[in-house]
Please model this.
Amino acid sequence: MIDPAPTFRIAGEIGREAEETVRARLADRYARGVIDRDEVASVADLRLHTFEGDEAASEIFRRCCVTWQVDRELPITSHRPVVGAVLVPVKRLARRLLRFLTEAQLSRQRDFNWNLLLVLRELLERERR
Model:
């Protein structure tokens, strides 16, 4: 399989380390049969022709497809050097204790986002035909 040009690059040594890690994990999954090379090749050959000629709208739609999961937890960090080591565990505990308050709403929002993306994709396909 020919390696396609990456869609983004991480600069510097961190980028090279990340690329090596990803390639090693991918090679391991190929070797174990978790990922089928033919399936990857067929998906890579597909081209998305959404919003032809309108790069801004195409980018917005791509971002929607990437960020539709509203209930994905973001990492909790702190920029405070002294108090941060105490605040982070407290915030993580508070998140776990209060998760039940938002879980149902976020789940419904995630489902709505996913269904909306499916409808948008169908409308775009009909428009293109």
User: Anything to note?
Assistant: Residues 84-128 form the longest helix (45 residues).
